[in-house]
Amino acid sequence: MAFTATVGNQQVSCGEDQSMLDAFLRAGVWMPNSCNQGTCGTCKLRVVDGDVDHGDSPADTLTAEEREAGLALACQATLRSDSVVETLGGAVGGGITHPLRDLTATVLSNDEIARDTRRLLLELPEPLAFHPGQYVELTVPGTQLRRQYSLANTADEDKVLELHIRSVSGGAATERWIFTSMAVGDQIPVTGPLGDFFLPAEDSDDGGPMVLIGGGTGLAPLIGLARTALSRDPGRRVLLYHGVRGVDDLYNLDQMAELTKVYPAFTFVPVLSHEAPAAESVHRAGFPTDHFIEDVDSARGWSGWLCGPPPMVEAGVKAFKRRRMAPRMIHREKFTPATD
Ligand code: FES
């Protein structure tokens, strides 16, 4: 049985087992969202009227007090009656969104590009509209397990999706599928786009300097963001740090060299945390956030973009604030371990 959620002046039909977030995004109604797993709290909303089932909402993301106060996680909650909801902060269904869709993609290539890292190219039967920086979900064959991978594409690269995937020890998606049995020509289900890690629309983008810091395959969405920002303004200052353990973990170096050549205000800084850089190399030692603090005296007026493991993202937020970046200009995408 379906129920209706009213958000602002829009009404969305929600299936019995469908999360509110899934229903909103499929209907093209924007809702803040990030992890789609109940861990980040971005999709928290207020149920003004009606009943919801909180499903698997974790208590540390949605406390008992918050449930009592009528809050819910849109990515976990399902409706049990027609309901009226509102997003926190007053936004009600505004913003630009591209509807969430299910498509069947064909594996075009699945190549090793760095240590324990693959580049997966997936051809879609029709274009998928998304914002650069968003992610898609793949479902592991024969299971209900969904895995989330950021898109490395710009918005016009909407027929062949590029994902960067690092192997996870014992991982159902990587060790038992993508790195072993997945073959060119396989047909796989793809759901997307998801997430709120993307640039403002061009007419509200202030064009200010940007710093992007990615850990490991956290580089993927930053490529789409950086290329989009530079295509809007080729003179824009864009500083991209890629933090990895060793030189064998670096990838897309040709693309970085090309961007550096074409856009003089673009800087790429590879940083090695577990290896001493070779003499004369452009690599730096340590952590990207420390280098940002050394390189930039003031980040007032800048925007910051962080994607990777939670400790790196948290260190980045501190570094940006230390250099006086406004909190609202700090954007983050945390890679949290998937649970089976
Ligand atoms: S908790 Fe719902 S999107 Fe993260």
TrEMBL record:
Pfam families to which the protein is assigned, alphabetical: FAD_binding_6 (PF00970), Fer2 (PF00111), NAD_binding_1 (PF00175)
Residue span(s) of domain 2Fe-2S ferredoxin-type: 1-91
InterPro entries associated with the record: 2Fe-2S_ferredoxin-like_sf, 2Fe-2S_ferredoxin-type, 2Fe2S_fd_BS, Beta-grasp_dom_sf, Cbr1-like_FAD-bd_dom, FAD-bd_FR_type, Flavoprot_Pyr_Nucl_cyt_Rdtase, FNR_nucleotide-bd
GO molecular function: 2 iron, 2 sulfur cluster binding; oxidoreductase activity
Keywords: 2Fe-2S, Iron, Iron-sulfur, Metal-binding
Cofactor list: FAD
Taxonomic superkingdom: Bacteria
Domain FAD-binding FR-type: 100-200
PANTHER family assigned: NADH OXIDOREDUCTASE HCR (PTHR47354), PROTEIN RFBI (PTHR47354:SF5)
Protein name: CDP-4-dehydro-6-deoxyglucose reductase
Lineage of source species: Bacteria, Bacillati, Actinomycetota, Actinomycetes, Geodermatophilales
